[in-house]
Specification:
Chain lengths: 367, 367
């Protein structure tokens, strides 16, 4: 990927020139990983990539991070600091050239570091680096899409094996732990979230996994994802526990949500606006009389972050382009009763939406 | 804990008055959890607690977070926004009173949100909320220390069971997965890190866990921690795999690091400076001729965050007070050969250091 990283840095610089951003400061996290391949965690020890619109990058980092940075093969001047000296002098030297102009700062950088930078460069005008980075990151390369498909395949495998197991009598949290075990066993590095919303808990869109014991007749929202080689999976499917009395409205709602999901996929094309995709899903649900129960946006971009640009929501006129990757996840939530959500990751292609989650949308019956 | 949270808010406000901070903006994360008990994750959806120096708090949050916030019992005005409307109007209304004065911002808040706040309140002067929060958070209450001891007890149990298992022939990553399984089984919510540094990998202080296969005669750095009811554990112990040829210098280095650990514990007392504790550990290692191989600070505060104030490092004159909790983790790293680190969490008490990690410091021999 080294030449891919070099290309990304050149593209970022060309975008910076176009938009009049003189330099960017990027912290450990998804933007640093995207531009350099370096995996580092944001912490109290200051660590920054400085990318000027023209010229060579530089890195400010704690001594013990030096090897990891050099392993990436990045062509950058490295300014390091140690616990013994502290970061102050090194930071001052690092930022010396950034005294003015429009400077982009990583959206997810901790505010404490931005305040330090603002003190050291009081004449600079600060803006969000996402202005530059979202242009690049929202359009996935084929290499990135391949990794996202591998992440999604692990989720498919996990779902298939999970639903062979017994659900009745287990706590939601036990099912979540089993999802984690399967994701890791099949090669993901980390589970990022594991929502198990059984029965009435399914009606809370951001419920995680509780001590509730699963009963026959429960419908269950299973929404989980994790990281594979730096890229995220995210899929939601519905299961129903057999031998109980399922809510009589369940099948109708499931069918409507599934139609809404299909309508959103059908609205995906190069040149369509994000809000058009949202509207397509929302119309199906509203026409069926459940509009008040679809309480969130239709989707979010995904890649190195679980949530990133583009956001598939009302009012977002951003236009879809080839290679954009985002969730399509309409839902209907009937308080106190149940919820239904069906979620795929769509890639915007020349001929429309490519769905990378291969698990069928139909209800899976479990024991 | 509701009355404990009310007290914390009152203490924060009194500290703000004393230091001339007119209000603070706190994002989802450890400061929000400390002040209110609310558990929320930082995401692209703006979520802020506004705490004025005098008067009632207010919350800006996405609609679906409202219930979780109300469950905390917090006495605050709530301004909510939905995916349909977006956050702009709500954020403007929320910040209306913050147009000037010195405003504290959560150190870990994403910079994108700070830039938004700075645009909406251009006359305010921004400072780090840690100036207020570290005063409070670094002194743990007995209720907090109880949770930290429970977290530590789970780490002790995990170490005891782990070291009954076979190490030879396993990958470091398999041992890390087993640590995770045991931490979760014994009641932690999440593993935060699991370092398994075998043989020469132990000489890299921030090595995590690789595909290296563990051999007889390896010494192994095991440094792991996770979260229990919102509080962190963090402990490092050494194991040696039997039936191989251990590096002849190992036992001497282990003994010196252990003495350095003891010297740091002995330096802990109310009124001592953080740098004094660091110096005590460093002196033992330097006097033995290994000073160049102890490349990091002696420790870090711990509580809701794995790393927080106070930092036990050279040059930090901050003074220890009753209830402060921090790691003592001297180490010696011989490149290409092995490393030794022994880490406890110390609580500063009236009569000195209380070590909450009960696993012995001696080498544990494993198969």
């Amino acid at each position: 990927m080294q030449s891919e990283h070099r290309n990304r840095i050149l593209k970022a610089q060309s975008e910076m020139q176009r938009r009049g951003v003189s330099r960017m400061f990027i912290g450990p996290g998804s933007n640093l990983f995207y531009l350099t391949g370096i995996r580092a965690m944001m912490s109290e020890r200051i660590y920054l990539l400085q990318l000027p619109a023209i010229g060579k990058a530089s890195l400010l980092l704690p001594t013990f991070e030096r090897l990891g940075a050099e392993d990436s093969g990045i062509d950058a001047e490295i300014i390091e600091w140690s616990d013994a000296t502290g970061p102050d002098a090194a930071t001052k030297a690092f930022i010396a050239d950034a005294s003015s102009g429009t400077v982009g700062v990583d959206d997810q950088l901790w505010s404490a570091f931005l305040l330090d930078l603002q003190t050291l460069a009081p004449k600079a005008s600060w803006t969000k680096a996402s202005m530059i980075m979202q242009e690049l990151r929202s359009r996935k390369s084929e290499a990135e899409i391949k990794l996202m498909k591998e992440a999604a395949a692990i989720a498919d495998k996990t779902f298939a094996e999970l639903t062979q197991q017994k659900f009745t009598g287990k706590k939601e949290s036990q099912i979540a732990a089993e999802i984690q075990r399967l994701l890791l066993m099949h090669g993901q590095e980390q589970m990022q979230f594991g929502i198990v919303g059984s029965g009435p808990n399914g009606a809370k869109p951001h419920h995680e996994a509780s001590d509730r014991v699963i009963q026959p007749g429960d419908s269950i929202v299973l929404d989980f994802g994790g990281t594979y080689k730096g890229y995220q999976s995210d899929m939601t499917r519905m299961v129903v526990v057999k031998d109980g009395s399922l809510d009589p409205e369940y099948e109708r709602v499931h069918d409507i949500v599934n139609q809404a999901n299909a309508a959103a996929h059908a609205a995906v094309k190069i040149g369509a606006a994000c809000e058009d995709v949202d509207r397509a899903a929302r119309k199906v649900i509203s026409d069926a009389g459940y509009g008040d129960y679809f309480t969130h946006r239709t989707g979010h971009g995904i890649g190195i972050d679980v949530h990133e640009h583009p956001y598939i929501r009302q009012g977002n006129r951003e236009v879809l382009d080839e290679g954009m990757a985002f969730s399509i996840e309409p839902g209907v939530y009937l308080p106190g009763r149940f919820g239904v959500r069906i979620e795929d990751i769509a890639i915007c292609r020349e001929n429309g939406s490519e769905n990378i989650n291969l698990t069928p949308h139909s209800v899976t019956i479990v024991q």
